[in-house]
C-alpha cells in the first residue's frame, strides 16, 4: 500500500513572523490560512506568502520537522530554510549530503 505523502511548510506572516505546519494539500491549506480558517495564529497574523515547503514526507517525518522547527529561534529557522534549499539543489544535481543538523544556541 502506498504511504500518504505529507508536506511540511512555513508561512511568512505579515508581521514578519513564521508559522509552520503540515498538510497533505498545500494549496487548500494555504487558502484556509488566508481566509483565517486554518489556525488561531494565522487568524491574527495573516500570511504574506509560503516561505518554504518540503513535500513527499511521511506524516511522522513531517510532524517531527514541524515540532523541531517550532523549537528553533528565528535565526536558526532562517538557517534551516536556507540549508534545506541548498539540499534541494544537491538532490537535483544527484549529489545529496547524508543529513543536515541545525542546532539552536540554547541547546
Q: Over the alpha carbons, how many angstroms does the gyration radius reach?
A: 14 Å
**Structure summary, number of beta strands:** 3
- By DSSP (H or I, 4+ residues per run), the number of helices equals 4
Strand percentage lies at 15-25%
Terminus-to-terminus distance: 39 Å
Overall helicity: 40-55%
Q: Average pLDDT, to the nearest integer?
A: 81
Low-confidence stretches: 94-107
Query: Biggest β-sheet: count, sense, barrel?
Result: 3 strands, antiparallel
> How are the strands of the largest sheet arranged?
2-1-3
- Structurally, the number of domains stands at 2
Rough outline: globular
SSE arrangement, N to C: EEHHEHH
**What class do helices, strands and sheet pairing give?**
alpha+beta
Detailed description of the structure:
The protein has 4 helices and 3 strands. The chain is an alpha+beta fold and 107 residues long. It folds into 2 domains: 6-70, no CATH class; 73-107, no CATH class. The chain starts with 5 loop residues before the first strand and ends in a 14-residue tail after the last helix. Mean pLDDT is 81; it is low at 94-107.
Chart the SSEs and their pairings.
Layout: E1 6-13, E2 18-23, H1 26-34, H2 40-44, E3 47-57, H3 59-70, H4 74-93
Antiparallel strand pairs: 1-2, 1-3
Descriptive labels:
single chain; 107 residues; alpha+beta; 2 domains; three-stranded antiparallel beta sheet; 4 helices; globular; disordered C terminus
Describe the structure concisely for a colleague.
The chain has four helices and three strands. It is of the alpha+beta class. Strand 1 (6-13) and strand 2 (18-23) form a beta hairpin.
